[in-house]
Structure prediction request, 496 residues.
Amino acid sequence: MGVDKLIPCSVKLSQVIQKSGCDVLCVIDRQIPKELVEQFNDFRSYDKAFDTTVSCFKSSKLNMPVVYSPLPELTDYHDVRCYQNAAAKSLERAIKGGFKAPLLLVPESDKFAYASLCTVLGALSELYVPIQYREDVPDKSQRISNLSVMIPSPKAEEILKEALLLESGRFVARDIGVGDPERMAPPRIEEYVTKIFKNLKVNVISDLDTITKEYPLFAAVNRAANQIERHRGRIIFSFPTRRSSDLKTLMLVGKGVTYDTGGADIKAGGIMAGMCRDKCGAAAVAGFLQIVNEKKPADIHVIAALCLVRNSVGEDCYVSDEIITSRAGVRVRVGNTDAEGRMCMADALCRMKELAVSENLPDPHLFTIATLTGHAALAAGSGYSIVIDNSVAHCTGHARKLQEIGQLFGDPFEVSMLRQDDFDFNAGKVIGEDVVQCNNVGSSRTPRGHQVPAAFLIQATGLNKHGLDSPKPLKYTHLDIAASAGELPALPTAAP
Prediction:
């Protein structure tokens, strides 16, 4: 779907404040118009909090209201997210003030190369309206009517175009992520995705016999939900046509657990609330596909899988102690039904591995993206994704490169390492089982609780046979976005 249809209001560049046609000016830095210098200094003379809190006042010289959302005093440890946050707060205050046509002054920065782009993205993020609210109350589908931005750069048009492109992907990711367990149940995500990606080759796997035979670990998670037609699982693959110009293949598998009850190991004590967000890995993959579909990079081939399933509890739910043979022929003993994310992704990841081996794809790199563990939130802290490379990807320096790029764009990653301990943890304990899916305590109480699932995904898919010394080494990276995807009541962040 075109970018313009996924942006919640009209967005344009402005050159002159007085002729912008806007009803409020949003300032987020101390690089202010000359007309405001005297008034700003006057406020500072008697208000010591002026440069630390959001304020709204009338400028007589500009004859318009002004929202000032100051940046903090920047230290060596701040990153470009301070620009995103300030821009979002300025739009939030303007909307609360009843304004409908803000003009955002986008500052330049010597410290952060992409401050202008990130500022615009921060403002756009504040304009998102959840899909169900848009559908149920159409009159509230826009928070403002239009947004103008003034970017003091010869590349202003390019910056705005890039911001709108990225936001269109984040819009798709938020829509899928924010939907409640019914609005974004697997069949309805299928409807949404196929509408968005009309021109992409999409293969939807919904037939139960096919799922049971070819994706047995996914089928186990899907068993209870499959009893209810509107909750039945889907695996959605996108297979764009290969081109002779392709130099690299990205193979993305996203966890799309539309609701996670924990299954038979049910989430008790009130911690089930918010588990509609357990689909944000698949949402991130869908958002990435939107950007690729619009940008059409000439040298990158992207294959994606959305693993959409509800981890329901009922008479046919899978239970701990079951032994299930994965697509790769690995005998998996279930240790905890609340570790369903690794189960629902493993067989799709195995299929990606098979394609990488058999189709002679150029420079394949496999990824899993998932809100996988509470341990990730504990280890990294709120707002940070975790990246874990296998041995092959690690030797290319991939995780550190991703971390460096994320730092530039306000999408921060922490890097974790896989160790032999993580593989040993999953080793089968008795004759007849190859690996154990999980222990029976929460990841946040398990040492190396976010690394162990990555090792399991390597073991359950046969990727451990494609290490550095194999005839066909394969790069694989696991992204745990449990800490960065956004928890209720906040809206999804659309990270990474």
